[in-house]
Amino acid sequence: MTEKLKNAGTENSPALLEMKNVTVVRSGKKILDSVSLSIEKGEHVAIIGPNGSGKSSLIKTLTKEYHPLAGAEGLVLKIMGKETWHVFDLRKLLGIVSGELQQTCCREITVFDVILSGFFSSIGIYYNHKVTPEMEARAEEILEFLEISHLSDRFMHELSTGEARRVLIGRALVHDPQALILDEPANSLDLKAMHSFRESVRKIAGSGKNVILVTHNLQDVIPEISRVVLIKEGKVFRDGNKEKVLTDANLSELFSLQVKVLEKDGYYQAWS
Ligand SMILES: Nc1ncnc2c1ncn2[C@@H]1O[C@H](COP(=O)(O)OP(=O)(O)OP(=O)(O)O)[C@@H](O)[C@H]1O
């Protein structure tokens, strides 16, 4: 057992995540296999793996969309020290941005309404939603923080992918979550959009929240992320310090391909 697992949080300051022996089975297949992973409050972590390795399933297990196989020996799944969560409270704690969410939001809804709708866990504002002046002030504050106030009245379906991605970060931030979880965040962003996106995420990483980045692309790993977890075939394959984990040998074994890793100014790239 690693030191990180032994020391997962304390009673007064619990770990953001404590997972031990978590196995998830879907359609008769083990998609997570005895996963043990602990993430401290405020820690920034990249979870990297090939397509189909189980990254999104791991996140869906955190958000209670997928459930671990009950009865596994030594099974633990705690978030902020608690095993049982109301899904609504969990959504306030974990701000999630994914490609799936972007597809759902790509409609005739204004940016301002999409951000506000984070308060109601909806997409858009409906007649039964009571929007308070405090909520509007918070939405405006977030637009400013992310430097996207100029997009406020634009419709989501008219935005570029990069702009929309930053709006979704804004939606995820309304509740001031402890963790921002980004699932394949920079997919299909061009160089400039990727730069703006990274700058937004770096700002959030500097604000004391956890940034948990799920990706198969090394370029997404911002310098603030110091720990990397490699996932292969539903298992934790490597877990540790970024410099020690992101090696040619580890990445080659992870992707079953000869891979060369390059680092420049705190950013990484993989060549095959
Ligand atoms: N609900 C489900 N029912 C059946 N199989 C599933 C389900 N969800 C995930 N899987 C399978 O579990 C495996 C892991 O999927 P997952 O989406 O977690 O991978 P991933 O690492 O996020 O992949 P990608 O990088 O392509 O998004 C895949 O083989 C997938 O087909």
From TrEMBL:
ABC transporter domain span: 17-258
| Keywords assigned by UniProt, alphabetized | ATP-binding, Nucleotide-binding, Transport
Does the UniProt entry include the keyword ATP-binding? yes
Q: Which GO terms describe its molecular function?
A: ATP binding; ATP hydrolysis activity
Q: Name one Pfam family in it.
A: ABC_tran
Position of the signal peptide: none
From which domain of life does this come?
Archaea
> PANTHER family from the xrefs?
METAL TRANSPORT SYSTEM ATP-BINDING PROTEIN TM_0124-RELATED (PTHR42734)
Q: What is the official name of this protein in its record?
A: ABC transporter ATP-binding protein
Q: Per the UniProt entry, what species is this protein from, by scientific name? A: Methanosarcina mazei
